[in-house]
Structure formats: C-alpha cells, structure tokens
Amino acid sequence: QKEVEQNSGPLSVPEGAIASLNCTYSDRGSQSFFWYRQYSGKSPELIMSIYSNGDKEDGRFTAQLNKASQYVSLLIRDSQPSDSATYLCAVNNNDMRFGAGTRLTVKP
Amino acid sequence: ETGVTQTPRHLVMGMTNKKSLKCEQHLGHNAMYWYKQSAKKPLELMFVYSLEERVENNSVPSRFSPECPNSSHLFLHLHTLQPEDSALYLCASSQYRDSGGPSTDTQYFGPGTRLTVL
C-alpha cells in the first residue's frame, strides 16, 4: 500500500474553473501536511502547509484536511494556465513522505 | 530564489567516473536532505542529516556517499553509477526538532541536479 496516494492525472480544467486535487495517506500519526507545485524540469516549491483539521485559505488556494478520513485536498480557484504543473502532496510524521503527484493542465 | 543552491545543475557521467554533487543552504536550518526523483515516481528520500549527523539512510546503494561538513553544506559523492541512477537529485533543508517533538517544519528545495549516467 502506498503511503501517500494521489491520482496521477492528468487533470484538465478550463481557465477560470476550480481545480480539485486530492491526496490520501496511510500513517494515522501524521501531523503536518504540505502541497508543493513542481513545474516541468524544476524543483518543488511550497504552496500550502496545514496542520489541523479544516480549511486553510491563501489567495486562490485552499487546503482541506480531514485526519479522521486521512485525506487532504487542494482547491485552486479561478485556475490560470500558469497553474499548469504537477502538484505533490507531502505528509510528515518525523519522516516526510511524498505522493507521486497529480499533473494539472489549465486550458485557456 | 529559495535559499538552497545546488551545483552542478546538469551532469553527464560515465559508469566509471567519480563526481560530487554540492548543496548549500542559506536559511539557517539545521537539517539537510538528499532526494532522488525519477520520472513518474514519488520523491525518494536518500539521506537525512540533522545537526550534521546522519539520522536516516534508506538502504541507498553504497555507490552514493553523503557528506555533511557543517549545517550549511551537503555533498553527495558518486562513483561507479548505473544508467538507472539517472534522475533529478534534489537537496532540501528544514529546521529539525530534536527528540521529544516531531519535525513539522517545511522542507525547502534546491533547483536540483539533472544527472545522466551513460
């Protein structure tokens, strides 16, 4: 069983739509959760971190965490073509574990 | 600019060569990491150094040898690599909490070294 699981995609949404990215994890003791964005040929860059259940909003991005369901998601509102990238979910409980990433394409 | 730099950015080497990757962080962190990223696979943690001591080695082949001379610098020495070792090698740093508390702090990545083994 994969420790951090993401749908590999590609996920395609039209410009201006909401993109929804999902992630599940297996370690119930996980305490911190991160979303990274990685453009092709580049390194991951942090978008959001979330530590407690509920929603956390930062601009067009909202992270949602449900520890009971071992589920974390990222919503991108008003998607732009520049949001096209691979989004990595990461879960930390002394060790950082990454998902394989979901490739998002925003079409103009 | 993330505050974590890596050199070289690209490296092509033969299987008999010896080379080293370098990472430097300017964030005042006390933990540094080496990751391997292959196509369509999750990031694989290779080595973790906290306070300049190695705390984790995920059964990485001995042809990869890390070195951490101080909290700001990290090296990955490479020798007799195989073509399947071709990948993006990423360095990251964070503020690691000592025993008694988990490390919840964010890891910041360098730009990576694209390695090709012929």
Could you characterize what this model shows?
The complex is a heterodimer of chains A (108) and B (118). Chain A is mainly beta. Chain A has no helices and 11 strands. Chain A has strands at residues 4-6, 11-14, 19-25, 32-38, 45-50, 54-58, 61-66, 71-76, 85-93, 95-98, 102-107. In chain A, strands 2, 4, 5, 9, 10 and 11 form a 6-stranded mixed β-sheet that branches. In chain A, strand 9 (85-93) and strand 10 (95-98) form a beta hairpin. In chain A, 34% of the residues are buried. Chain B is an all-beta fold. Chain B has strands spanning 4-7, 10-13, 18-25, 31-37, 44-50, 53-57, 64-70, 73-79, 87-94, 108-109, 113-117. Chain B is globular and about 40 Å long. The chains are: A mainly beta (108), B mainly beta (118). Chain A binds chain B through residues 2, 4, 8, 31-32, 34, 36, 41-46, 49, 51, 88, 90, 92-101, and chain B through 2, 33, 40-43, 45, 56, 88, 90, 102-112, 114.
Identify the notable features of this structure and list them briefly:
heterodimer, A: 108 residues, mainly beta, six-stranded mixed β-sheet, five-stranded antiparallel β-sheet, 11 strands, 0% helix, 58% strand, globular, B: 118 residues, seven-stranded mixed β-sheet, four-stranded antiparallel β-sheet
